[in-house]
Amino acid sequence: MSEHRFPQDVIDRNQAALNRQMRWLAALVVLVGGGAGIGFGAAGLFSPAIIAVTVVLYILVMMAALFLFRRAQLDHWMTFRIVVEPERISRFEGGRKAIIIEPKEITKLYELDEGGLVIQTERTQKTIVAHAELGDYERLRQQVLAWREPDSLPGAAPRAEA
Predict the structure, then answer these.
(1) CB–CB of 82/140 below 8 Å?
(2) CA-CA to 1 of 20 to 30 Å: which in 11, 41, 47, 89?
(3) Is residue 161 in some structural domain?
(4) How many alpha carbons lie under 13 Å from residue 23 in its C-beta half-sphere?
(5) Do 75 and 136 fall into the same domain?
(6) Using CA atoms, how far apart are residues 134 and 51, in angstroms rounded to an integer?
(7) Is residue 59 located within the same domain as residue 19?
(8) Do 90 and 99 contact (CB within 8 A), yes or no?
């Protein structure tokens, strides 16, 4: 059995990128809310009090949504793990139902050019994506590829034989 998680340096790098994106989105939310308020005010469609309350509520709701999204992403990176056993591969992630796939259930196995595996079954909801950034990814890759050869990616040129 092998267990694979995101290493702390990957989590830190993803968190820094997410924080940068959140700052840009927060600025955009304020600009859109303020712009809409100015536009409605200039058009005289609503009283200034109604516009002010609406803009403030919009900004607060959007900021809360951004905060919740950020927290969900961090939770995903911290709790995501894949366990490979001889008879199955399982994906666990905090708050979500585990996905367990046996080798005989695999209908498609893709090896992505940028690294990583996509393991699919007949039921599209039962798919596991193994990121190349997972700890000890090469071991995970070898274990899964021992079950079957990877399929060619749709629209990709056939793989050259090594």
Answers:
(1) yes
(2) 11
(3) no
(4) 5
(5) no
(6) 48
(7) yes
(8) yes
Q: What one-letter code names the amino acid at 102?
A: E
Range of the domain at 111: 82-145
Query: Could you tell me if 59 and 13 lie in one domain?
Result: yes
Residue 150 lies in a domain: no
Sheet holding 99-101, edge to edge: 2-5, 81-85, 88-92, 99-101
Q: What is the pTM of this model?
A: 0.72
Q: Would you give per-residue pLDDT tens digits along the chain (162 residues)?
A: 899 999 999 999 999 999 999 999 999 999 998 888 888 888 888 888 888 899 899 999 999 999 999 988 888 889 999 999 999 999 999 878 999 999 999 999 999 988 999 999 999 889 999 999 999 999 999 999 999 999 988 876 655 555
Residue 154 belongs to a domain: no
CA angle 31, 36, 39 (to 5 degrees): 120
Residue type at 144 in one-letter notation: V
| 67 and 124 co-located in one domain | no
Q: Considering only CA atoms, which of 84, 73, 68 is closest in space to residue 11?
A: 73
Domain membership flag for residue 159: no
**What number of residues does the chain have?**
162
Residue 132 Cα to chain centre, angstroms: 14
Based on the structure, what is the number of domains in the chain?
2
